[in-house]
């Protein structure tokens, strides 16, 4: 079940990346697109989950907005923020959208006005922060008990296997 969940998540992220990246060229906005995609399709089914035959279910009354947002925050926004921090800490920047709007990203402005050693320290801090978020996300996902991980238990949801024909509906 854990491998299926991981494959579904990777397929969903790949789909969002392929669609959103050419439009925005901004890692933060791609993560935001992924969170919106996940939240909007959670009650129906995401593309990745449908392909591997999984479905998120909630209580008999259905998933509430709070459950959808809590689950999306933990499963998409936090690891996405970790990836953005790691990329930023490694010195990778693609400020196309913000530069087009005439706004510079804060770390670019800070890096220009600080000495090289200070900018390196800031980069290291961002890199470590991103890695910590990614490790916490991994530990959280590995806390699988039956059909529920930690984020499923907190959001009141579960992921179940469904026959492939039903998963695509």
Word description of this protein:
This protein is mostly helical. The protein is 70% helix and 5% strand. The protein contains nine helices and two strands, in the order αααβαααααβα. Strands 1-2 form a two-stranded antiparallel sheet. Helix 1 crosses helix 2 (27-41) and helix 4 packs antiparallel against helix 7. Mean pLDDT is 78; it is low at 107-118.
Question: Summed up, what is this model?
Answer:
This protein is mainly alpha-helical and 169 residues long. The protein has helices spanning 2-24, 27-41, 47-52, 65-89, 96-100, 106-113, 116-142, 150-155, 164-167, and strands at 54-57, 158-161. 26% of the residues are buried.
Give the SSE map.
Elements: H1 2-24, H2 27-41, H3 47-52, E1 54-57, H4 65-89, H5 96-100, H6 106-113, H7 116-142, H8 150-155, E2 158-161, H9 164-167
Antiparallel strand pairs: 1-2
Helix pairs in contact: 1-2, 2-4, 4-7, 6-7
- Give the low-pLDDT segments: 107-118
What is the ordering of alpha helices and beta strands?
Answer: HHHEHHHHHEH
Radius of gyration: 18 Å
- Cα shape: globular
Helix content: over 70%
Largest sheet: spatial strand order? 1-2
Number of DSSP helical runs: 9
Tell me, rounded to a whole number, the average pLDDT.
78
């Amino acid at each position: 079940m854990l491998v299926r969940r991981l494959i579904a998540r990777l397929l969903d992220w790949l789909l969002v990346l392929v669609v959103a990246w050419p439009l925005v060229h901004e890692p933060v906005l791609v993560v935001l697109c992924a969170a919106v995609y996940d939240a909007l399709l959670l009650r129906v089914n995401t593309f990745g989950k449908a392909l591997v035959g999984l479905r998120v279910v909630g209580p008999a009354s259905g998933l509430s907005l709070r459950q959808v947002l809590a689950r999306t925050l933990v499963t998409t926004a936090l690891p996405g923020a970790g990836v953005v921090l790691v990329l930023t800490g490694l010195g990778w920047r693609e400020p196309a959208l913000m530069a087009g709007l005439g706004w510079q990203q804060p770390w670019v402005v800070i890096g220009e006005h600080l000495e090289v050693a200070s900018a390196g320290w800031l980069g290291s801090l961002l890199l470590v922060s991103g890695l910590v978020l990614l490790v916490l996300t991994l530990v959280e996902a590995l806390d699988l008990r039956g059909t529920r991980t930690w984020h499923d238990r907190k959001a009141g949801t579960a992921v179940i296997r469904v026959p492939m024909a039903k998963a695509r509906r």
